Amino acid sequence: MLKFAKIKLTLLIAATLFLSQCKNDFDVNDDWKDISVIYGLISSTDSIHYIRVSKAFLGDEDAYTMAQVSDSLYYQNATVKIEERISGTLTNTFNCVKIDTIREPGVFAHRNFVFATTAALSTNPEATYKLIVFANNKEITSETSLIQDFNVLNLAGSVNLHASSGKLTFQWKTPAMARIFEPVVRFFYYDVTLNTSTSLNDTTLKFLDIPLGSKTSNTKLGGELLGAELIGSSFLTTIANIMPNTPNLIKRVAAKASIEIRISVGSDDMYTYIQVTQPASGIITERPAFTNISNGLGLFTSRYLKVAPKFPSPKPFLSTKTMDSLALGVITGPAGKDLKFMKGTDTQNIWNSFP
């Protein structure tokens, strides 16, 4: 018993000596480091490519105060370029232009700097793109290939989406490098409204997007068959829920070219980044950081937007039964949301005016 008492006394004295030598001005900030944070998604289907170049910041002031200072977030003299190589041979160098934009007021500085180029990227599957950023006397780099075009299969000319018995199905074979796919059905229609200032009718082409969830391939090698499906009842319910109210609406007309498939595609690196950064649902909340930026943090990779059918092929049109369901059904007709769609036969008779 005496032995344990001596041990406790020794520990108490040691703790007292340690605490007596501690200072109250403990600095939680580590030595400052220049940490570059780079984000860029490039695609052969984009007309402009943006690269965001920023930096992590550290200081003795409140984080919200420092975030309002542009110098805390952005390099003032950074340069950005993208090198294109095909089969290893340098074919193009694209110098990115710094753009000074104004963001909405919020936590971060309202001045927002990005770099951009309008270069047309190659559709050659052997093409690779190297990002090179010079900032604060250091070079930050990353490299990616591009996701290539692919075909949408089994897309019919006439689409039946009347109630639960109708459905739209389509498939596609995955291209190399791609891992994550988000298909959307875009529905085109016309709003015919009364112009109160002229007492004439205005006709406006509009569209509404119906997302079909997210699909993931097993590997980035390509050649996998994936598919998506839209049930008629979901089509009608979604339209009823999200189609906006239009002032002075007289009628709505389903366009003859009424259905388009749009598939947003992300690379394997993008898929990994999303998986790592999404909120944790288990008891382990700490996850490893993912970056493919050399000498920095962030993500530089490719994406792709597939639109089908491709012009000049005509878009699919809604069947007569589907247009009747829009006009008269319990979901979107007078007994439901009453969206004022025209019936199928009446719509077909005027499709020359509503292509």
Task: Name the descriptors.
four-stranded antiparallel sheet, disordered N terminus, Immunoglobulin-like, 2 domains, alpha+beta, 355 residues
Would you write up a description of this structure?
Helices cover 18% and strands 40% of the residues. The protein is built from 7 helices and 18 strands. Strands 1, 2, 5, 6, 12, 13, 14, 16 and 17 form a 9-stranded mixed beta sheet that branches. It has a 4-stranded antiparallel beta sheet with strand order 4-3-7-8, with no helix packed on it. A hairpin with a 2-residue loop joins strand 7 (127-135) and strand 8 (138-145). It is elongated, with a radius of gyration of 29 Å.
Radius of gyration: 29 Å
| Terminus-to-terminus distance | 96 Å
| Helix count from the secondary structure assignment | 7
Q: What structural category characterises the helix and strand content?
A: alpha+beta
Beta-strand residue percentage:
35-45%
In N-to-C order, the SSE pattern is HEEHHEEEEEEEEEEEEEHEHEEHH
Anisotropy-based shape: elongated
Low-confidence segments? 1-29, 58-70, 106-110
The average pLDDT is 85
Total strands: 18
Helix content: 10-25%
Oligomeric state of the chains in view? single chain
Number of domains: 2
Largest sheet composition: 9 strands, mixed
Write the layout of secondary structure elements.
Elements: H1 2-20, E1 36-42, E2 49-55, H2 63-67, H3 70-73, E3 79-86, E4 89-95, E5 97-102, E6 111-117, E7 127-135, E8 138-145, E9 152-153, E10 158-159, E11 167-173, E12 178-195, E13 200-211, E14 215-216, E15 225-231, H4 232-242, E16 249-267, H5 268-277, E17 297-308, E18 317-318, H6 320-328, H7 344-349
Parallel strand pairs: 1-17, 10-18
Antiparallel strand pairs: 1-2, 2-6, 3-4, 3-7, 5-6, 7-8, 9-11, 11-15, 12-13, 12-14, 12-16, 16-17
